[in-house]
Write a structure and sequence with these properties.
425 residues, 78% helix, Growth Hormone, Chain: A, mainly alpha
C-alpha cells in the first residue's frame, strides 16, 4: 500500500472541495464508475485467498499428486506475494497506481487461466506463484486508488473498500466449492474471467493520476527490519502465520468433505474473518491495549488449534474449530498489522511490506510441513504443532513488551485501520 498516493489523493479531494457539506448517509452508493470498477476487482482479488481450499483434495486426486505437493499451491502463492511486497511501493510510486493495478490484474488473469489449463500439479504450483505476484501488485494499490477517486470523502471510500474486502474473503471459498464441484479447473477459469472484466472496467473508466507520488526507496523495507519493535512483531507474525496456514491449508484433508462441503465450511470461516477484522478488532483496540489483545488472542487461537487436533476425527467438531479460528484470525490480522504501523515512524507501506515479507515465510512453510508431519505421525499432530507455534508467538509479544509498549498508546484513524485489514489479509 502506498501512503503517499493515498495522502496525495485525499489532500487533493479536500482542496478541490473546501466547502463541501457533510455527505449524506447514503453517499457511499453514489460513487464514480471507476470506484465501482476497483471495488469489483477487489472482491475478486480477495476471493483468491480461500478459493483453492475446497479443491485441494480434488486437485490431488485428478493430477495424481500427493497431499504435500498439493499444499505447495499455498507455498508458491504466499512466498512470491511476500517477496513482491518488498518492491510494490518502489514500483507503484514510479509508474503510478493505475498502471500497477492493471499489471497486477493482467498477471492474475494470465496465471489463473494457465493454472486451469495445467496438466500436472507442478505447473499449477508455478502458475499460483505468478498469481501471487499479480495479487501483491493489485492489493498494494487498490485502497489508495479507491480513497483518491471516491466521492463523499475518505470515510465513505474506506467503508466501501472494507465491504469489498469482506465480501471477497467470504464468498471465495463458496465460489470455489460451487465451481470445483463441476471441475477443479472451474475456480481458476472463473477467477480469470472475472478479473478480465475488472481489467477492462478499470482500463476504460479510470483516468491516470494527475499527481505522481514521491518515489519510495528500494532499500527502505530492508532497513526497516533493523528496528527492534518491527522485528519483534514480524517474528511473532511468522510463528502466528504457521498456525494460521496449517488451519487454512491442511484442514481440508482431514475433513474429508466434497468440494461443496469444503466450500460451505470455509465460507463460514471467511464470514468470521470478515466480521471480526472489520468490526470486532477496532472495537477491541479502543478498549484494550493492542499488545494485550495480541497475546490474549494468540493464546485463544492456541486453544482452538489444540481442540482441532482433539476433534480431528469429528467433522462437526473440526468445522466448529475452523469457524472459531476464523473469528480469532480476523482479529489478529488487523491488530497485528495495525501494531506494525504504530511501531515505527516509518512510512506505513514501508513498515507493512517489510513485516509482510517476514510473516509470509511462515505461511509459505506451513502447508507442506503440516502434510509431512501428518504422514510421519498422526492427522492430529499438525494442529498441535500449529498450537505450539502460536503460543511461541504470544511469548515473543510478551517478552518484547518493553520494545513495543508504545503501540498501546497510538491512536489510529479509519484509513490506518483499513490499511491494516488489507495487509493482514
Amino acid at each position: 500500500m502506498i501512503p503517499t498516493a493515498t495522502d496525495t489523493a485525499t489532500t487533493a479531494t479536500t482542496t478541490k472541495h473546501p466547502a463541501r457539506k457533510p455527505a449524506p448517509t447514503n453517499s457511499i452508493l453514489h460513487q464514480p464508475k471507476a470506484v465501482w470498477a476497483v471495488a469489483f476487482a477487489c472482491v475478486i482479488a480477495f476471493m483468491g485467498i480461500g478459493l483453492v481450499d475446497p479443491i485441494l483434495p480434488a486437485i490431488a486426486e485428478s493430477l495424481d499428486a500427493t497431499q504435500t505437493q498439493t499444499s505447495l499451491l499455498f507455498t508458491s502463492y504466499l512466498l512470491i506475494t511476500g517477496v513482491a511486497m518488498l518492491f510494490t511501493s518502489w514500483l507503484s510510486t514510479r509508474i503510478g497506481a493505475r498502471t500497477t493495478l492493471l499489471i497486477g490484474l493482467a498477471l492474475i488473469v494470465a496465471f489463473a487461466l494457465a493454472a486451469g489449463l495445467s496438466q500436472n500439479v507442478e505447473s499449477v504450483i508455478g502458475f499460483r506463484a505468478g498469481w501471487g505476484l499479480g495479487n501483491a501488485l493489485f492489493i498494494s494499490t487498490a485502497l489508495a486508488t479507491i480513497v483518491g477517486a471516491a466521492s463523499g470523502g475518505a470515510s465513505s471510500a474506506i467503508i466501501l473498500y472494507e465491504a469489498a474486502l469482506g465480501l471477497g474473503i467470504a464468498i471465495g471459498p463458496l465460489l470455489g466449492g460451487l465451481l470445483g464441484s463441476i471441475s477443479w479447473r472451474g475456480p481458476f477459469f472463473g477467477t480469470s474471467v472475472l478479473m478480465a472484466i475488472g481489467f477492462i472496467a478499470i482500463a476504460t473508466l479510470m483516468k491516470k493520476e494527475p499527481v505522481r507520488p514521491t518515489p519510495t526507496s528500494l532499500s527502505a523495507p530492508f532497513k526497516a527490519l533493523a528496528k527492534p519493535a518491527l522485528s519483534i512483531l514480524a517474528i511473532a507474525a511468522l510463528f502466528y502465520n504457521i498456525g494460521f496456514f496449517i488451519l487454512l491449508a491442511y484442514t481440508p484433508f482431514p475433513l474429508g468433505l466434497d468440494e461443496m462441503g469444503l466450500g460451505l465450511t470455509f465460507f463460514g470461516w471467511g464470514i468470521a474473518v470478515a466480521i471480526t477484522s472489520v468490526w470486532v478488532a477496532p472495537w477491541l483496540t479502543r478498549r484494550i491495549p493492542r499488545s494485550r489483545v495480541l497475546w490474549s488472542v494468540l493464546l485463544l487461537l492456541g486453544v482452538d488449534l489444540v481442540l482441532a487436533g482433539v476433534f480431528v476425527d469429528s467433522v462437526p467438531g473440526l468445522i466448529t474449530c475452523v469457524v472459531v479460528g476464523g473469528a480469532l484470525l480476523g482479529v489478529m490480522n488487523t491488530v497485528l498489522t495495525e501494531s506494525v504501523m504504530a511501531a515505527t515512524d516509518l512510512p506505513r507501506p514501508v513498515a507493512s511490506s517489510a513485516y509482510s515479507a517476514v510473516r509470509f515465510i511462515g505461511g509459505a512453510v506451513a502447508p507442506p510441513a503440516a502434510s509431512l508431519i501428518a504422514g510421519l505421525f498422526t492427522a492430529a499432530t499438525p494442529f498441535y504443532v500449529a498450537a505450539g507455534s502460536v503460543v511461541i508467538a504470544s511469548i515473543i509479544v510478551i517478552a518484547g513488551h518493553r520494545a513495543i509498549a508504545h503501540i498501546d498508546h497510538e491512536e489510529e484513524d479509519e484509513l490506518v485501520e483499513a490499511e491494516a485489514i488489507t495487509a493482514g489479509e
